[in-house]
Structure formats: C-alpha cells, structure tokens
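Action item from last week, closing it out:
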Amino acid sequence: MTEGQLWLDPDRARRGGADLSSAGEAVADRRAQVGGRIAAASAARPWGRDDLGAAFDKQYRGFEETLLRAWAGIGRALDNLGEDVVRSVDNEVTTDVRSAGRLDRISDQRRAGR
C-alpha cells in the first residue's frame, strides 16, 4: 500500500492462489498416503487386545480420528482458499475494467456535450 492506494498485480496474485491450491492438494495427498498408513497400522491394534490395550485404544482412536479429520480439512481449506484467491482476483480485474469503461463513457459524453 502506498499513500492509501492498493496495487494489485493480478498475475502474481493468481499464481499465489494457484500455489495455495497446489499446496492444499499436496497436503490432501500426503494425508491420504501417510494418514491411510497410520489408520491401517492402528487398525491392527499393535498395542494389544488385553485390558491395557483396550484402554489405550479407546483413548487413541479419538485422537487419531481428530488428527486425520483435521489434516484432511487443512488440505481442503488450502485448496479452497487458493481457488477463492484466483476467483477474487478475476472479479476485481473484471470490476476494474468495467468501472474504467464507465468512467471513459462519462468523460466521452462530457466532451461531446461541450
């Protein structure tokens, strides 16, 4: 920001949005791979099936589910945020072009009316 004005570099902002989307997809892919292995490993209950293992499993499952759900949510949120950035930039550029066209028409009408 310079002197109360905001300068938008649309191409750079779109690339940033695309990068956010790519990061979200990478997080989601990693969650699917690693998170899937975590879930598969815990399903085998390596801590055992005795009373102690059952108590551990009861506590662990809630944490595992929360972690895996949050991990997937972060991937989706980053992807959605990136898409929103690109859409917002496109809308801003479109609005700016339309507004400039309207101002030009007003200016042209004033010149023609002189």
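Closing note: The radius of gyration is 26 Å.
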